[in-house]
Design brief:
The protein has 666 residues and is an alpha+beta fold. It is 42% helix and 25% strand. The protein contains 19 helices and 22 strands. Strands 11, 12, 13, 14, 15, 16 and 17 form a 7-stranded mixed beta sheet that branches. Strands 2-1-5-4-3 form a 5-stranded antiparallel beta sheet, sandwiched between helices. Strands 7-6-10-9-8 form a 5-stranded antiparallel beta sheet, with helices on both faces. The longest helix is centred in the middle third of the chain and has 58 residues, at 251-308. The chain starts with a helix and ends in a 9-residue tail after the last helix.
Length: 666
């Protein structure tokens, strides 16, 4: 829908969309560029201005008439209506407009109103001028007819032309009145259909009533144009002797209205797509809930069995099953979050400089081990070595191939073969070159009916011997799309599957950044004091046990406020690191970290603060960094990552403290 509204916003015609409820009043939702120019306001200000009460945006003499006419149209169930009134601009000036409103009932209930404005100030001024000069009609009529821009004509009671003004003649390209006098419209043959104007003139002549803005088409300068004509009877001594009429060209107006209709159709289609997306979202959440309950059921079930058993061998078996179920649950949560981030556009590419030849080494080593343990043959063919040094998001590429290779190993029987083949292709785009990676297996294959939906979330073949999260292929496809590549698959049941992934990599002349493998010295953590700010008792116990097993002393704080007080009361440099949960009562971790960094003590700016939280998105990590934290670690705890980061930042803190004369030597 955002794309459809953006298209509407660019239209030069003044348009606005609003909702209306008796208890909430009118709420403007979107305005076009044409209306912003008319009001001389930016879009947001224009929406706010048009959401005000009618008496604040219209002339006092017109407000009640507008309300009555609008209410009458709503009560009568009219789908559209027109009103002419004086509109108050924000600069205090009034402008006469014709407002054409279309009412649209939404499929899910409620309604929207689409209104287009036509600035008729000039026309209104001309009408006012004619009314003021009516007293001098006999003296000034010829002058008025010569100067008015509206085509005016008059006819006898047989509908034959008696005369026309200059605008009329110029519109049709006639040199003088003599071309039309004594002739009817049918004689001139300029209307696309004679019926509308012939019938309305006969009605005026028979009833003495006027007609207003009767629509039709006429030929002007070789082009069929849209016009609206208004006609009134000419009465002398109480007898109808003819009629007088005027017309105006509304070709552009109707074209704009047609665009509005088309826009409305697109908006309705967009609403339907939104409704379908909402249904898909509901189904997605239902699948997530269902798939999460499966490993959760295993965790709870085996935990209860372990708690009730005194047999240590059985307990160990139960714990292994709990661990396996927990890993599946974590994988499902991670995949769901990643798919959500990709769909929401929150996952960004992070290109890095790597050697193309070995950027998949760690992945292939892992897969080779998996294949060997299962009794499979794992082959690698080809190389990307000729690419040299490249700039690419290697992490996401590895994620794609990890999903594909893991599936290949999972669904290939003992004795089968999994092949990873890489090659450089000749196609180039500027400094980028296309590469292809093929992953082929001799596994169980996929049915033809499954292939069109294989990249949909949570979709799995029910005949599969091993069930996963159903998200791996969906994530792989969306990551490949992000990288600007393509993924194709061919498969035959009982013979195997082959995926071909094509993508571009930018070749660069730059050194590959070094990556040190830090080894934590023995007893490095012995005697270290860590402040743990965590409100959850279970998480406290897990982190505390892990840290104490490494020889560290742990100081507990149930929220950020208590953590600040403990740090403030501690001796200078006596706390070696702070682990900070983000979501805590009283004061959250972000606020606590900011206040610690702002304290007027030397160690407040240097002490390592590590976020330890379930908030796993990139924007969460950016918030932690902005609050002054050194690292952002996500739950569930990864002990190796936690200890690695603690050692890294503690070592830097040790170096900083060596220059503090206030401290006793450790």
């Amino acid at each position: 829908m955002a794309m459809e509204w953006e298209n509407m916003a660019a239209l030069p015609v003044p348009i606005f969309i609003y909702s209306y409820e008796e208890d909430e009043g009118r709420q403007c939702l979107k305005v076009s560029k044409g209306l912003c120019d008319f009001l001389r306001l930016e879009e947001e200000a224009a929406c706010h201005y048009l959401s005000q009460s009618l008496d604040l945006v219209t002339h006092p003499e017109d407000t009640q008439r507008i309300r009555q006419a609008t209410q009458r149209a709503l009560d009568n169930g009219e789908e559209q209506w027109r009103l002419s009134f004086r509109m108050l601009r924000p600069d205090g000036t009034y402008a006469w407009v014709i407002c054409h409103t279309v009412q649209v009932n939404l499929p899910e209930g409620g309604r929207l109103f689409y209104s287009s404005l036509m600035d008729v100030a000039q026309e209104h001024e001309q009408n006012e001028r004619r009314r003021a000069e009516q007293k001098h009609m006999n003296l000034l009529l010829d002058k008025i007819l010569e100067t008015t821009q509206i085509g005016i004509f008059w006819k006898d009671k047989d509908r034959r032309f008696l005369g026309a003004n200059k605008a009329f003649l110029e519109y049709y390209g006639f040199p003088s009145e003599s071309v039309i006098i004594g002739k009817t419209d049918e004689d001139m043959g300029w209307h696309e259909e004679d019926g509308p104007y012939k019938n309305d003139e006969l009605w005026v002549l028979e009833t003495g009533h006027s007609t207003h803005r009767v629509r039709g088409k006429c030929l002007s300068h070789g082009e069929m144009r849209d016009i609206v004509a208004s006609k009134s009877p000419l009465i002398e001594n109480g007898e109808i002797v003819g009629l007088v009429g005027s017309f105006e060209d509304v070709t552009e107006e109707y074209r704009q209205q047609q665009k509005i209709v088309e826009l409305n159709d697109r908006l309705l289609a967009s609403l339907k797509r939104t409704e379908m997306a909402n249904r898909a979202k509901t189904a997605f959440l239902s699948n997530v809930s269902h798939d999460m309950r499966t490993p959760l059921n295993g965790i709870l079930g085996f935990a209860r069995l372990a708690a009730a058993s005194n047999n240590m061998e059985k307990v160990q078996n139960y714990l292994q099953k709990i661990l396996k179920s927990a890993e599946l649950l974590q994988s499902l949560i991670d995949d769901t979050l990643e798919l959500s981030r990709i769909s929401a556009g929150k996952l960004r590419l992070e290109p890095e400089i790597v050697e193309a030849e070995n950027m998949f080494d760690a992945l292939l080593t892992t897969i080779s081990s998996m294949a060997e343990n299962k009794g499979l043959h794992f082959e690698t063919k080809g190389s990307l070595a000729e690419m040299g040094t490249v700039k690419v998001d290697a992490l996401k590429l590895n994620k794609v191939f990890l999903n594909l290779l893991s599936n290949a190993v999972k669904f290939t029987h003992v004795g089968g073969t999994v092949t990873f083949a890489a090659e450089c292709l000749p196609e180039r785009q500027g400094g980028r070159r296309k590469c292809r990676v093929s992953i082929k297996d001799t596994g169980i294959g996929m049915e033809d009916s499954f292939l069109p939906k294989m990249f949909e979330p949570f979709v799995q073949e029910h005949r599969l011997p091993v069930q996963g999260t159903g998200l791996g292929l969906a994530i792989a496809k969306q990551l490949v799309d992000m990288l600007g590549g393509s993924i194709n698959v061919s498969s035959r049941v009982g013979e195997g599957t082959e995926f071909k992934v094509e993508f571009y990599m930018e070749q660069v002349m730059a050194p590959v950044p070094g990556r040190g493998n830090e080894v934590i010295p023995k007893d490095f953590f012995e005697g270290r004091r860590v402040l743990l700010c965590e409100d959850n008792a279970l998480n406290q116990e897990l982190a505390k046990t892990l840290l104490e097993d490494e020889g560290m002393a742990v100081i507990l704080a149930e929220n950020g406020q208590i953590g600040i007080e403990i740090f403030n009361d501690s001796d200078l440099g006596s706390i070696d690191a702070i682990l900070m949960d983000i979501r805590m009562p009283v004061m959250d971790g972000l606020q606590a970290a900011k206040l610690i960094r702002a304290m007027p003590r030397k160690d407040s700016r240097a002490v390592p603060i590590l976020a330890l939280t379930a908030n796993a998105f990139r924007e969460d990590a950016e918030k932690s960094k902005a609050a002054g934290m050194n690292s952002h670690l996500t739950k569930p705890l990864e002990p190796e990552k936690l200890l690695h980061d603690l050692a890294h930042y503690m070592e830097a803190y040790d170096e900083a403290r060596t220059g503090w004369p206030e401290l006793d030597k450790r």
